[in-house]
């Protein structure tokens, strides 16, 4: 009788874990479908807007860079959808590492360009065409020739994984340097975002007081409000992943049923929602 109760309890526990995993897989599929559809539409519409404007300001060059980043990331989403729908990876180990690395490269590069936009607006920076092209080009060269090759050389290579599985590089966290790198990235993003949020809110408050009550009719207020939009995207899309990432690193050893791994994937999928920024930005331009 006692053994029977234990068996039933274990079966119930396994069924609950399975049901929870299926729900999280469904959430992942829905998030990626929304991001793929909305992100693709946003890239197309913003590309048309920029084509007609033909501006080469700091803002325009940065937006173009974001469009390219979003496009690369959107190309990787069908591979993720295939994996979560079929439950099996069919594209080889290198493609798995590439698709996994792209989402991180996209997240941190997008964050860097967001920071550049906010700082340029705060300091009212406007460079000549040659300077703007030079620094944007330097960022791309650094990413393409240094960061990406190094990441692909080491990411997901220190442990052995089954060929039918992908996006499960949690065992890399057994390496001390990986733990340190994750803590540093999380700390930098949180601190930079907190500082910029505080400064941006202060600037908006001062501008609002200066031009009240006709604040919407002033270019300076609208420009700072658009900068706040990029900070809000960072807070909504990037911050939850990094906060949870710290918790995940500290507790992944206890994650026997891989539930924390799936939650980590959901928060990672949330970071790709930043590709919807172009739709929001177009709506802001229209109004």
Helix content: over 70%
State the fourth-level CATH superfamily: Rhodopsin 7-helix transmembrane proteins
Structural category: mainly alpha
Tally the helices: what do you get? 8
Instruction: Report the radius of gyration as a whole number of Å.
Output: 22 Å
Q: How does the overall form come out from the CA principal axes?
A: globular
- Overall strand count: 0
Distance between the termini: 70 Å
Query: SSE order, as H and E?
Result: HHHHHHHH
Instruction: Please name the CATH architecture.
Output: Up-down Bundle
Chain oligomer state: single chain
Q: What count of domains describes the coordinates? A: 1
What's the CATH C level? Answer: Mainly Alpha
What's the mean pLDDT score? 81
Strand content: under 5%
């Amino acid at each position: 009788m006692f053994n029977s109760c234990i068996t039933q309890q274990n079966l119930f526990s396994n069924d609950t874990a399975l049901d929870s995993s299926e729900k999280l897989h469904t959430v992942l599929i829905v998030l990626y479908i929304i991001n793929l559809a909305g992100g693709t539409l946003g890239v197309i519409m913003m590309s048309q807007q920029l084509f007609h404007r033909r501006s080469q300001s700091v803002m325009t060059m940065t937006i173009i860079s974001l469009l390219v980043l979003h496009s690369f990331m959107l190309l990787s989403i069908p591979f993720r959808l295939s994996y979560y729908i079929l439950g099996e990876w069919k594209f080889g180990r290198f493609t798995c590492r590439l698709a996994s690395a792209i989402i991180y490269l996209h997240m941190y590069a997008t964050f860097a360009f967001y920071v550049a936009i906010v700082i340029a607006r705060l300091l009212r920076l406007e460079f000549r065409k040659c300077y703007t092209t030079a620094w944007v080009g330097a960022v791309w060269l650094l990413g393409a020739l240094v960061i990406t090759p190094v990441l692909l050389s080491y990411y997901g290579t220190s442990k052995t994984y089954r060929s039918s599985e992908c996006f499960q590089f949690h065992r890399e966290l057994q390496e001390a340097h990986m733990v340190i790198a994750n803590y540093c990235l999380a700390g930098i993003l949180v601190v930079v975002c907190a500082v910029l949020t505080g400064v941006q809110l202060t600037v908006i408050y001062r501008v609002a007081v200066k031009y009240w009550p006709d604040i919407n009719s002033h270019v300076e207020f609208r420009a700072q409000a658009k900068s706040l939009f990029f900070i809000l995207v960072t807070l909504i899309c990037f911050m939850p992943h990094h906060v949870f990432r710290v918790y995940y690193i500290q507790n992944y050893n206890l994650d026997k049923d891989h539930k924390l791994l799936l939650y980590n994937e959901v928060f990672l999928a949330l970071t790709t929602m930043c590709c919807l920024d172009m739709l929001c930005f177009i709506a802001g331009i229209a109004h």
